[in-house]
Amino acid sequence: MFENLNCNKFCLESIPGYLLFTVTLWFIWKWICAKVFDSNFQPPLCPGKIIWKYVDYWLAINSVIDKDVAMKNCAIFWTPPPPPFPPLDWVKLNVDGRLNPDLNSIAVGGIIRDNEKNWLMGFALNKGLGSIIEAELWGIFEGLKLA
C-alpha cells in the first residue's frame, strides 16, 4: 500500500500512480459506506469512468493553483478595535442557535464577556420546535434581554 501511495510512475494519460491509487481507494471507501448507511444505494455501473473523471478534475484544479503563494498561518479570533473606540467599559455578546433536524427542536446559547475577555454571564435554553432561522433569532433576542 505504501509503495502505491509513494508511486511517482505515470499511468495512462500522464496520471501519477499515487493519485489514481488514492482516488480509487477513496471511492471504494465512499461506496462501501454508502451501501452500509443507505439501503437504496446502487454502486455505479462504470466506476472506472467516475474515478478517471475525478482524477481529471483534481489535476485541472491543481494546475491552476499558484503553488508559489506563501502560506501565512495565523490564529483567527476576535480582537477589540484600537482606542479610543470602544470605551473601556464595553461588553461583547456572542450567541448561537442550533437545530436538531431529526426532532425540529431548537436551542440557543450565549455568553457575555467584558473588555478583558472575562466571562460575565451566559445562557443556554431549549426553545421547543422551530427552524434554524428561529433558533438564531431567539439567540439574539435572549442575548439582548440578558445584556
Describe the secondary structure blueprint for this structure.
Blueprint: H1 2-5, H2 17-37, H3 47-64, E1 91-100, E2 105-114, E3 119-129, H4 132-146
Antiparallel strand pairs: 1-2, 2-3
GO molecular function, one term: nucleic acid binding
Protein name: RNase H type-1 domain-containing protein
Pfam families: RVT_3
Overall description:
InterPro entries: RNase_H-like (IPR053151), RNase_H-like_dom_plant (IPR044730), RNaseH_domain (IPR002156). One of its GO terms (molecular function) is RNA-DNA hybrid ribonuclease activity. Keywords: Membrane, Transmembrane, Transmembrane helix. This is RNase H type-1 domain-containing protein. This protein has 147 residues and is an alpha+beta fold. The chain has two domains: 63 residues, no CATH class; 56 residues, no CATH class. Helix content is 39%, strand content 21%. Helix 2 packs across helix 3. The longest helix has 21 residues. The radius of gyration is 25 Å and the shape is flat. The termini are far apart. The model has no long low-confidence stretch (mean pLDDT 82).
Brief descriptors of the model:
single chain, 147 residues, alpha+beta, 2 domains, RNA-DNA hybrid ribonuclease activity, RNaseH_domain, RNase_H-like, RNase H type-1 domain-containing protein, RNase_H-like_dom_plant
